[in-house]
Design a protein that fits this description.
Shape: globular
CATH superfamily of the largest domain: CDP-glycerol glycerophosphotransferase, C-terminal domain
CATH topology of the largest domain: Rossmann fold
Strand content: 25-35%
Length: 655
């Protein structure tokens, strides 16, 4: 009974948030959806050092002053937690972000510091605490022919002698544009305005993210700069919704549209989007707003794959099978997706950057994902299907035996307590998932829905894919799909780019007969620079949404410790394991020995060996024929075209 009470209280607290009210030299935090009659503290924790302060919450209210922050003697990012004492046990909960807090800034003019809130990647409340000489706010943004007219105001945190105000436009590729501003002083506030002009003939300006800052200068020397806060722009959304309401306006509009928004730090951001892309963006935004204000009469199913970065995986194939079965008449579908594909079935589209994302997630009746969601499920009426995304070769969850903070364990063991169903592709995974995730709920051990493609006729799709990727029909296709290496980082803990492949050697020996599809982790793919020499030999498909499509057209796979080879194994095509860092990886992450003993292809340590094995791939297939068959019967023996139906039958009980 006691444990049930604690679990009930914990679930309720998961929904808590604060409304923050700036009062001079302090912020007043008003706790909402907390639990009465238990001892509560607000915890402010420095992300990097772990330093923290606790402030007791009395009558659902607590004050944080600038002197409290000075105790840290640290600048940087601070996380906000609610600490609760239940039955002499302390529990810690991350605080949800609340949109109303976007203007809850604490200005410390004495020390020239700013403590301002933002929404982190997981939709939780965080604060930036930095030294600043001023803070800038946008008061109006509008489009005027080929330019943006920007007006704003600057509040100084110290007396500055300056003679120029300048807008700084920043692109992610480090390109900078500097634009002078007109300005005047008005009761201690600097009022400024500027006209930002674009070269509409330059396609490099299209589909780019522009961040906007303002700089103060004296004698052409920069005194300080600051991103421009955009929370005073109340009508940003209404401005582009106007273009949706009348399709004719979009058709007759110029060749591009300026799309304003604020990022997670509430800094002014915009993109220049060609009109052929803008209709979909506007349509999705309009549907979000309409859907948000109209309660759905049908149960909502919320899909997400790889944090919304792609339309792929088990969620995609479950969804498309539900469409084939006509279940869109029974359910409304929501997809979290940031890509450019037109998802079939006309679902509502949202993403993790949207202010409505969390609300849609909480309103949904079903959650379906292959990784995790940014919030924990706290409503027992929600059915949560965790589809997973691969048979494990590298150690997972609680099986990982290392203290290194480079390993990304995530919150899988915590989240597993909220799953209603878990999908397993084979008996081996069934046992590993149950143990490593510490999960004791229902497991649908019927194979992966995404692997149904290997048992259906997709010859038309194969031909279309070959044409889209410009692969000649007389070339064989090698898919290179390595795993992400947690431990291979630089001095700043950023992923280090290490391809391992000798592209020149591969090109010289294989380019007459083969094309290589390069499928790298997205954090590494942005550093891939291919010379023109390789342009017809190596095709970068790192950003291609669904790797299952690539399986269909590939004649061979090169991988290492990635779970992808278990899925590709359903094709019974040859697999080579290129593992030059095997000893290092084994000692750092750990591998399941049962898989190691069953590998259906050779382990290769050098590029010379790799080339020889590819040239003699027929001999490799012959040498590993029996071992491959044993591997297939052990790891690829479930599903075979029916996995999607089996999952839907269990979760939705419709067939």
């Amino acid at each position: 009974m006691k444990e049930l009470l604690i679990e009930s209280i914990k679930k309720k607290i998961l929904n808590h948030y604060f409304i923050i009210d700036p009062k001079g030299d302090k912020l007043v935090f008003h706790l909402k959806q907390g639990i009465p009659f238990v001892k509560k503290n607000l915890m402010i924790k420095h992300r990097k050092t772990g330093k923290r302060i606790l402030k007791e919450i009395k009558s659902s209210k607590v004050e944080v002053t600038k002197d409290d922050l000075l105790e840290f003697d640290e600048l940087g990012v601070f996380e906000i937690y609610l600490q609760v004492k239940i039955k002499n046990k302390l529990f810690l909960f991350r605080t949800n972000f609340y949109l109303q807090n976007n203007n809850s800034i604490l200005l410390d003019k004495t020390n020239q510091r700013v403590f301002d809130p933002y929404r982190n990647f997981n939709h939780n409340l965080s604060f930036n605490y930095d030294e600043q000489k001023f803070i800038a706010r946008a008061t109006d943004v509008k489009k005027n022919n080929n330019s943006i007219e920007l007006s704003g105001e600057i509040e100084l945190l110290e007396d500055l002698n300056f003679d120029a105000v300048e807008i700084l436009i920043k692109l992610r590729n480090s390109v900078r544009h500097y634009i002078p501003c007109e300005y005047e002083m008005d009761d201690g506030i600097i009022k400024f305005n500027s006209s930002i002009t674009f070269d509409i003939e330059d396609e490099n300006n299209f589909n780019r993210t522009f961040r906007v800052a303002v700089r103060l200068k004296e004698n052409d020397i920069v005194l300080d700069s600051s991103y421009i806060k955009s929370f005073k722009i109340k009508s940003i959304k209404e401005k582009y919704i106007d273009y949706i309401e009348n399709e004719q306006i979009v058709e007759n509009y110029e060749d591009y549209v300026i799309y304003f928004y604020f990022n997670q730090n509430f800094n002014l951001t915009f993109s220049v989007i060609p009109k052929n892309n803008i209709k979909k963006l506007y349509r999705d935004e309009k549907r979000q707003i309409e859907f948000y204000h109209e309660k759905s009469k049908k149960p909502l199913v919320f899909f997400e794959s790889f944090h919304g970065q792609s339309y792929s995986g088990q969620p995609k194939y479950i969804y498309e099978r539900m469409l084939e079965m006509g279940l869109d008449k029974t359910y409304n579908f929501i997809w979290s997706y940031e890509g450019d594909l037109d998802i079939p079935g006309n679902p509502l589209i949202t993403n993790r950057k949207s202010n409505t994302y969390n609300d849609f997630l909480r309103k949904s009746n079903y959650w379906i994902t292959n990784i995790s969601f940014p919030i924990l499920k706290n409503n027992d009426d929600i059915i949560y299907l965790q589809t997973t995304h691969g048979t494990p070769y590298k150690h997972m969850g609680s099986d990982i035996d290392t203290q290194s903070n480079l390993i990304k364990r995530g919150k899988v063991v915590t989240e597993s307590k909220t799953w209603n169903y878990l999908i397993s592709p084979n008996d081996f995974s069934y046992d590993v998932f149950k143990r490593a995730f510490e999960y004791d709920g229902p497991i649908i051990n019927k194979g992966y829905p995404a692997n149904d493609i290997f048992y259906k006729d997709y010859s038309d799709k194969k031909a279309k894919l070959m044409d889209e990727l410009n692969i000649p029909n007389d070339k064989k296709v090698i898919l290179y799909a390595p795993t992400f290496r947690d431990f291979d980082v630089d001095e700043n803990n950023k992923p280090r780019f290490n391809l391992f492949l000798d592209l020149k050697k591969l090109y010289d020996n294989l380019s007459d007969d083969y094309v290589i599809l390069m499928r790298l982790h997205y954090l590494l793919s942005k550093n891939l620079n291919l010379s023109d020499e390789f342009k017809d030999f190596i095709i970068d498909v790192s950003n291609y949404d669904d790797i299952a499509d690539l399986y269909l057209i590939s004649d061979m796979m090169i991988t290492d410790y990635s779970s992808a080879f278990f899925d590709f194994g359903h094709s019974k095509k040859p697999i080579l394991f290129f593992v030059p860092d095997y000893e290092e990886y084994l000692s750092f992450r750990g591998l399941y020995s049962e898989v190691k003993e069953s590998l259906p292809g050779p382990e290769i340590l050098t590029n010379d060996e790799l080339v020889e094995n590819i040239k003699n791939i027929d001999n490799v297939e012959s040498d590993y024929k029996d071992k491959y068959e044993t591997f297939y019967n052990k790891f690829c023996n479930l599903g075979h075209g029916t996995a999607s139906d089996d999952v839907i039958n269990v979760v939705f009980k419709e067939i």
